[in-house]
Each structure stands twice: as structure tokens, then as C-alpha cells.
Amino acid sequence: MVFLKVFLTFFLVTVSLQAREIEFLCSEGLKCDSFTPFRKKLENSSAYTREEIRPMLDQAIAIGRYINFSVKSNEDNQKLTVVFEGYKRIKEFRLTSPVKLSGEEIISDLKFRSGTIYSEEVVRNNLETLKTYLRSNKLSDLEPRAQVLFEGDEVVVEFILSSNRKIKLNKVTIQSKPWVKKQFEPYFYDFYKKDFDPLAIKLKTDQISKELFNAGHFKSKVSILTDKVSDDNLSIDSFISIELSSRINIALSGVEIFTMQELRSKIYDRIKIDLGEFNEQSIRELIQESYEKNGVYDTKVSFTSLRGKDQFGEKIENKIIKIIEGKKIVVSQIVYKGVNVLNADQLDELFLSKVSPLASSHFYDKDFFEVFSDLIKKKYYSMGYVQVEVSKPITTIQPDKSVIVEYYINERDTYKISAINLENVNDEISTKIKDRMLNKVNDSLNVVEIEPDLQRVVGSLQEEGYYFANIKNAKDPSILKYNKADLTVSFDPNIELGNKICFNELIIAGTRKTKNKVIERELFFNKGDVITPSILDELNSRLGNLGLFASLRITPYVIYDQNETTCSRTNILVQVKEKEFGLGEVAPGYRTDLGWKLSAGVTINNVQGMNRQFSIAAQSNLRTSLAGFDLRRKTENKRLPEFTFKTSFIEPYAFHNLLKTQVEFETQASAQRKRFYGFDADIYRISPQLSKSFSKNFIGSLRYQFERIVQFDASESKDNDNFFIGSITPSLTWDLRDDAINTKKGAYFNLSSEWANKYFFSMQNDDLEINYLKVISRNRFYIPMGDVTLAMSISAGYQKNFATEPYVNGSGNTELNSNGVLKTKGYIPSIKLFRLEGYDEVRGFEDSEINVVESGENIGKVVVQDSLYFANFKLEPRYNVTDVFQVGIFFDAGRLYQETFKPLKLRSSVGAGLKFLTPVGSLDFDYGIKLDRKIRNGQQESFGRFHLSIGFF
After folding, report:
1. Cβ(869)–Cβ(796) below 8 Å
2. Per-residue pLDDT for 562 more than 80?
């Protein structure tokens, strides 16, 4: 039930069992202030207990306007809630049955009368009456149930009969001519001795009707007669009547611009509109109109009739429609006569801005040229020439069969605005409104913008808090007062301002699982704040973004109080319909970097009704290519599976009672086995994170991560190691994109830095210290260029090792690395080094080709004791073929740098790709070609590479 909520609050001396606040809820269509005497009696007396108020409510019921009420109290009895429901009358009784019964006759026989007052008892009694009727008429196998449909203050009671045993279709008999029976009765053979399905019978009769029509029997009637149920109620015979009309066969000749089927279809549709009549004049007009819409004029249509009989001996009339197609008419010139204020060039510019495809090719388009007459008028109206006259197009055929199109224009006088009088509005607000209006004092009147200006007036007032402001004379022509003497006009909207509305209380309806707190904490305004449409739109957006509701409606309800003269207390009613919560998925697939993969997961949404989310996911993949591994691992050809198990929990409002603002908390725990260039690794990770949206576009986050990494099967002994890495990563995101998936314009900026050292529980012992900084900046730009979007990405990263103290072995001596550089106590673990993959891939390159430093060594073999950098650049013009399909070309460039950053020294590629846009991202098919192929190990790099991936850019 939808409620209008009215508060009656008074603060009186009371005892603990007496109510200090009384709340009235009235069903839709009733007004709580209808029982004003009852309210006044309460106001002039002491507070009431639940028991004391009931006799007074009975008096209100006795008035006859209300038939039911209920009283509830809260836990401390400080508030009573009284619910009134108005009369509901039964609008109609219906009966539906699996067998053909006359529901109307049964309802009439049982004397079920519409207009009676609805109650559950009435429905129960009628249901019992129907059961008795069915038993007495040997229909005891039909079991009735009642369904009540509420339509405002009226009720529809529908009795639905279901059979305890299935009734079989015995036979379908067609009542028609013998050849019709022979042709169409087999259509029903498949239904014989099967459960009777009235809908299937109806669909077959519709098919027969369509076939007869297409065969030329345009006025034939196919109808289902009364079904006959057997005495034992186990089978049924169905009877169908086919009244056959005379047959008309249509033949076309001379058709070239259209296909025969296309024009025939148009003719058949016209015959349907003409109720089966073959009207020659109607069909002639249809054909000529169809040609004219294609710019072909002077088409001739003639009819010839030949009568005979068909194979069944039925009369048939052959209608031969002969068409002599006209020609497209070239427009040689458009002439505007009577113009002074505008010139021909300006009107031609208007013509070209609105022109139809046919007219743009210089052909005569009758419909467009007639519409253009109105467009000229609107142009003059916008300039204040409100009495302008523009003729319909006048065509003059030239000797070469082209036409000149002429418009006669009588401009008359222009009117200027002498005043804009916003009645009942103070000067400050009036000035703001006039600044927003297109029509200005001393400017020419723009009649076209009058209605939009009225909308601007109302919108401005609503944004000032006058939510229910309106213009009383908006549809009255006198809103514009013309002075013919001096050719001026005053614009006089009569504004009904009303009070501002201020927030009083939030009322929530429709929640089943979701706690009210989830909705209440999205409020960003306080009691007493002025309510405007933009505020409610923002609230609607916030609640919609929760992803919990299939439908959402927000409505303000004013609590009318005669004493309130400035700001009326207003309750905000939020009506919702919840989605079904929970998701399970299984996703087999293939990616060029991971090979064949299979993932599965379960997500539980709205945990405990608090919009919390819990998920478990697993993925396994088996690489089809080992090109990204070192020589030993490629030679061994071990195709071992990789896997990831991950669980996560999200609390969207962490510590809300303490912080009084939204901070999202997310924690993830995962176990992963992953294969790298020179080793395999088991990675165990837990990472709690806090995120805060400072505005619609600006988000900050802080993540702590603790990892246990076990590396094995390494080609170099240094990589057979174990690490404990604890780090903290602050991140800032500024997202200005119009859409996160199908981006057409905007920009995206992200800056993050990861700090790993002993203070965050990274390992530090005599042999190894983890102490590094990792900074990444990713920036994307999207520039609309007509139907093309130019997408660009610029990313860079910096890593620095701070554990630079020389390593001293057990003998007290320093050591050198394999490259001859002094070994330090710490280095950046290989698993944590930058790699150009995922977000930063360079399409066209294998991982083993692009993830190398300038020396030519793969990053998996490099010991980074100082610093590492990366740079990545992408440029991609994209064209939207459809809403879900994009094509584009691209230029990619990127590189890793050890110790020295050289952003202009990049590896690069070009290519083309396809994108399929899905609700969760784009599925990308790209092929990239290297622009600077290198010689490695005596062999030249491949020409390019195909990439199948989930889009990152």
C-alpha cells in the first residue's frame, strides 16, 4: 500500500505509557485532514495510551468514510501509528478455465454482483459458492482458486479453474466446404489425444486465417465455436467455422524501383486497413504515394480484371495492376519571394541544415518541401515576426522537366519585448530567472522559445526551493500582451509560488531484505534543508548506484500546516522493488596471454541486508604458448596449469557511526600459482583496502597488502627464494569519462605509490631486505571527433630500491652479482618488477620481446638494485559501428628502462582491432605489427601478433 504520511506531534507532560507523538497513515485516495475535529480533540487533551485512543477511533469509523483501522506503538510507547483504509469496491468478477466454459454465464448464474464492498470474507464465500456450482454440474475435477487484483480503490476478483486431471483433445471439426475441411483439418492432427491446449488451437486458426488472406480470400472469417466436453469429462471436441470469401489474385507489372514482394506487401496491408475490400482508388493512391516517397512522380496505375474459376471450382478474379513508373524530378532552383529581413543565402543555410536525403540530392521531395514551409515560419517566429505568412511550396515545371520551387513570404512587422513581468517573485529571484531566459527585454520576441522559457522559469523556482511552483496562465494566449501601436509585447507569466518545501523525514516502502539504514545513509541533506529537483535527482542517482533495486521512485509529500508560511515540512517517500540477490557464474574461454582458461565464482550481494558483498572465485588456465619463458623452460615444454583462488568481502560504509561519512572497506585473500619468465611462484596474499569518494569523480584509496611468495623451478639460483612483502599503497583517481565502458569523451587519471619496508612487515634479515618504492601514473584521454572517438593513453612508472647497503657474507666479505656489480643487501623482487602486460601491453609483441631492458636482457633475469622505469603510449581512433561493436586502428609504444629513464626511446607497433562491448568491459580482438623488428639470438623477431583480451583501455 502506498501511504501519504502526516505527523501530529505534541510535547505534553506525560507518563511512560502515554504517547507523545501520533502518526496517521492514510491509504492512497484518502486525506488525513478529513478528520480535523478528531485531531483538534487530541491537541486539546492529554496524551493518550493505545487503549484510550481506540474508542475515539471507533467514532471516526462511525462517520462512514473509513471502514478499517489499526494501531501500533513503538518500543517505548512514545509514538502511536494509526492506519486508516478506505472503502474498496469490487469492480468485476472474472472466471478463467482450461476448458471452454462461459465465465460470464456462470458469474451471472451465481449472482456475483459487482459494486459490492470488498472484504476477504466476501471472496471466501463466493469461492465456496463456485465450488458447490462446479460439483453440481459434474465439473468436480475443476478446482477453483481466487486471485484479487487491486486497482486503486477498486478490486477485480478473478476465479482461476485448474483441472485435477488432464482433458484430451479428441477431434477438431471444421465447418466449411469439403475442400477447405480436407486442406485444414490435418493442421490439428498433431494435437489429437494430447492435453487440450486452447492457445495452440487459437494459434493454428490464426495461421489458417493468414494463409487464406494471402491466397486472396480477403474477407474470409475463421472462428472457434463452442467446445464440447465428453460426458465423462475426459475429452473434448473442438469446432471451427471457416466462412470462405471470393478469391482475388493480384498480379503486378511494370515494377522496377520496388521489388514485386515489397509492393505486394504494401497492397496487402492496405487491403487489411480497408477491411478486406479491394478498393482500386485506395490502392492507386497507395502506389503513387509509395513512389512519391522515393522521389518518383507522375506514376500511372491502371487495373484490369479477368474472372474465372480455380482448381476447387471457386470463383476467382484476377486483378492485373499495370504500373508505368514515373521519374524523379530534379529541383533546379528554390526561390523565396517577399524576403527582406532574411536573404536567400540564410534560408538556403536553413534548408541545408534540415534537408532530407532525397532533397539533398537535388530531387523533389514533396513531404520535405511542405515541412520546410513550417521551418521558415519558425525561423521568423524566433526573430519576433509573429504574424509572418509563408505559402506552401509552389512548383513550376521547366522545359527540361525540372522544377522551380517557390515560397511566398509576407514578413509583416516584428515585435520587441517591452517587459517581462514575473508576478509574485521577489527582485533577487526574478533577476536570476531572467538571466536564464532566452527572451530578453528590448530583444525581438522569440515565440519558439516561449514554452522553453516557461520551463526555465519553473525550473529556476524549483531550484530555489519552490518545488510545486507553477505558471497558472501557461496555456493562456494572454500570457503575451501585444501592443500593435508600438509593436511591443509584454511577457506576463502568472506565477503561483507556494511555499518552499523543507525536508522533514524519510519514508521507505518496498524493502524486504534491505535494511532502511542502507537507504538512510545515502541522504546528504538534513532535516529542515530546502528540497529541490536536483537534490532529489542526486538522491535517486545515489540509490540507483547501490545496484540493489530493480525499480526506484522518489516522491515528496508535503505536510500541510496553516501555520507554516515560509517552508512546508515535507516527507520524502522512497519506493523500491528489490533485485534478486546473488550471482553464480562459470566462464570458459581463451586469452592469447594465458591460453585456455576456466573460471567460476559465486557472489552474494546485500549480505545481512546491509549492501555488503561476499564473493568466492577460482580460475585455472593452461598456456598454449611458452614463448614468454626462457630457453630452458621452453625446451622442457612443461605445460603446467596455473590457478587462482580468491575471496573478497566489501563493506560499503565502514565505521559509519564513527566517521559519519562513506568509506568503503574491501578485503581480499587469495592463493595463486603463476608462471614467470624464469621461474614459477606460489603467491599468498591478503589485502584490506579503504576507499573514499570525495566527489562524483574523485576517489582516494589506501591499501595494505601482505604477501608470502615462494619461487621455485627457477633457471637461476637467485630466483629460488621466499619473500615476505608487506606494503601500503595510497592511490588517487580522477575519472571524468562519460561512460566507463563505451567512452566517447572525457579523461581518466590515476596515481598510485607502493611502499614496502620493514615498518609494513616486509622481510629484513642478514641475507635480504625488502625496501622499495613503486610509483605508477596512468592517464587516458578521449576526444570526440564526429562519429570517431580518439582514445589516447599515457602511462609511466618508477621503482626504487632503498636497501642499498653492500651485502656482506658469513666470511665478512662483499660479493659481486653475475654482471659484476657490487651486490647489495636488498633488491626489488623479480615478481614485483614492471612488466608491459595487461594495462600496459604493447600490441604486436610477445611478452618475452617487449619485457626486456636496453641491454637486451629479459626483465626476469635482471637484478634491480637501483631503479627501474617504464613508459607506455597508446593512440587509437575508434568508430562505433553499433552500440556494442567498435572498429579502430592503433599505434602502441612502450619500454622498460633500468637506472636511466629515456621516454623517447620506445619499441612501437601499429595495428587494427575490433571491440565487442559487454556490461563488464570490452572483448578485444587486435592484431599488431612491429615497426622496429630486432635480431635476437640470431633470428629476426616475428612480424606481429594477434591479441585476444579483456579490454583495459
Report:
1. yes
2. no
